[in-house]
Amino acid sequence: MTERLYTRMAAVAIVAASLTTARVSGQAAPPAAKSKTAAKAWTPSRTPWGDLDLQGIWTSDSENGVPFERPEQFAGRPTLEGEQLEQLLEQRAAQRSQNAPLAGGITGAGPTHWYENWGAKSSRTSMVIDPADGRVPPLTPEAEQRAAARNDARRGRGPADSYEDRSLWDQCITRGVPNVMFPTIYNNNSQIIQGPGYVALTYEMIHETRVIPLDGRPHVGSRIRGYLGDARGHWEGNTLVVDTTNFSEKTNYRGSSDTLHLIERFTRVDANTLRYEMTVDDPHTFARPWTAALNLTPQAGLFEYACHEGNYGLRNILSAGRAEDKAAAESGRAPSQADTRGEER
To answer: Is 315 helix (H, G, I), strand (E, B) or coil?
Structure first.
């Protein structure tokens, strides 16, 4: 997506909700008077061509620390409150403090209050909202066989024999959809830009852009595959629905292959909330469809993500692997199969 295209598209529109407050002196106003002074309902804005306006930069930072699947101790409780919530937030803050030095690696993580997601206080106990237990359904026997085949193909290889042994994220290619929507250490922001008949989604992590047509065209042929799949969008009321198929087998989202079918929903809840839900429907991988969700909030801007300009992590992973191989050869030992990890991107 070029800057020229960005500037041609509509600017960010975030509508502030307003409240009407009545001054009442003396005794409380009767019920009829109260209804007249009730808070006005928030009305979403629309683009000049009539679509609901979702444009802006949105972040998932407020959901940082929420586990993807619900821990057993919170079974049947999608949210917490009161003292239990305070204890949980303290535990998440302590966990972030422990992980900060590891996240920064040799580049230095800095003090924890520098972290853009440091104040996250979500009361949710899992990203997964369906099934009701907050757990990803089990893999099918077919998916388990694929996983076993992948493990057999890697037998005898170390995690740093080649750049191809690293994830697409480590290689600065993609963090993948829908992974990129869920919060990690940093770069948890996305930008939505709309034009007549199209929506563009740009992710701060690796700066990928999906250009999604809304004109009802069919998906491309099944032989055409991509890391981000082939997306088609449409509106269901005030919800943008994005249907994506044709994923590359290299995407491998939680064990899936090229059978992954992703349905994403973007709903403007109020002036400060964009609800994101994604449903995975892949009977070749999971026992049943399942859904995870996020509440996104406005963000000021996107930061640069110059991954390929200095991917020292991947270079150091491979050079460390070769150093281990050399040391093992000189000592007459077999090469180490230990995982030599650099900064995870």
So the answer is: helix
**In this structure, how many other beta carbons lie within 10 angstroms of the beta carbon of residue 236?**
9
Asked if 185 contacts 103 with a C-beta cutoff of 8 angstroms, the reply is yes
| Rounded-to-integer distance, Cα 307 and Cα 314, Å | 10
> What stretches in the chain show pLDDT beneath 70?
1-40, 96-119, 333-345
Q: Is 289 helix (H, G, I), strand (E, B) or coil?
A: coil
The label of the residue with tokens 């469809």 reads 289
The rounded distance, in Å, linking the Cα atoms of 201 and 55 is: 10
Architecture of domain 56-64+133-298: Beta Barrel (2.40)
Pair of tokens at residue 281: 């429907």
Q: Residue 37 half-sphere exposure, CB side, CA atoms within 13 Å? A: 11
**Domain residue extents for the chain:** 56-64+133-298
Calpha distance 126→115 (Å, rounded) = 22
Distance between CA atoms of 65 and 132, rounded to whole angstroms? Answer: 20
Q: Is 168 left (phi over 0), alpha (psi -120 to 50) or beta?
A: alpha
Model pTM score: 0.78
Confidence (pLDDT) at 116:
61
Query: Residue 236's pLDDT is what?
Result: 96
Q: For residues 298 and 58, is the Cβ–Cβ distance under 8 A?
A: yes
